[in-house]
Amino acid sequence: MYKASVDAAPVHKMAMAHRGKFYFLATLMLLSHCVDATRELHGKNGPEFAVKTIQMRPTARPKRVSNNNNNNSFSNEIPMDMNMIRLKDGGCPPGTVPIRRMNQKEEYLRNEENIDGTVFAVGQTKGSPWRKYYGVGGTISIYNPKVVQGQYSSAEIILRGTSDTIIAGWTVNPIKYKDNLTRFFIYSVANGLHCFNSECGFIIVRSDIPLDFVMSPVSTRGGKIYTNLFFVYQDAMNGNWWLEVGLDPIVLGFWPKMIFEGLKNSATYAACGGEVYSPASITPPPEMGAGHYPDFAPDMVNDAFCKEFIVVDDAHNIVDAACTEKYTDDPNYGVFDNHMRDHQHIVSFGGH
Length: 352
Prior knowledge:
Elements: E1 22-25, E2 30-36, H1 37-45, E3 63-64, E4 77-79, E5 96-100, H2 104-109, E6 118-125, E7 135-141, E8 152-161, E9 164-172, H3 174-177, E10 183-190, E11 193-196, E12 203-204, E13 225-234, E14 241-245, E15 250-255, E16 269-277, E17 304-312, E18 317-320, E19 324-328, E20 333-340, E21 344-351
Parallel strand pairs: 3-18, 4-13
Antiparallel strand pairs: 1-2, 2-5, 6-16, 6-19, 7-13, 7-17, 8-9, 8-16, 9-10, 10-11, 12-15, 13-14, 14-15, 17-18, 17-21, 20-21
């Protein structure tokens, strides 16, 4: 039997028993229920997860070696207030975590992967068999690009190792959510199993922040720019891949090392930018980012961006993403990979 540690986040006392407890998250438009953290681990990943405790915090977090002081915001930039997405009453009771209920169609879709019709516009590391990465991060501007049913549009950080993948960012995905809201999301591919959010693979350690939360407000072209920091890194002590969000980092959970093969020890690819999907039969094409092709000289009023594009090196230091290139597989979507003194490595992307 597993033993769940108490969540490090403050949890208010509940008058009602936690078993069977439901939250209708009106502002998040989700139906979540509290699930025993140990049952979640066993149920999603099988009996081979023979561990006595669930790790609630990383053992070894990488260190930053650059001169970045986190005070390099644009004049019209507003970091997302993570308090806006916390459960109002303190969240689930100790030892439980909020999990969104899925229907049978979602259970089926999680094992499907859209290949034809998927377009990326990213800054990415150049392929090299000897380069290893132990994390990726970036501060991404939040938008609400226009899409129709059957399409999606995302902005994200990406790690890959052979056939395994970890992605984190925001998405507008009516295929999955039946709405056009901008939501936080994570996605992984581990040994051929494709998983969104907490469906499988990822272990949530927060009792007060559900995955799939709506990211609001969003940026407007020529107006205020709302941003959020996304960071995925490998624990140097045990190999688990941890996820942090926010300018004052909040640890949401981890992907256990043991579910991966290609990402078990490191990644060989890191990227940051945009992704869209649409079948050829659906028009108009989906917007990416701010819905406009980016300018060569980054214009942060008009373009979606991923600034402070960082990786974790083999010494487990956080460093600027070097040896990168721009990549897009559709001329309707553009990307520029630049270095700016105040904002370090910055990738601007977008189109429609």
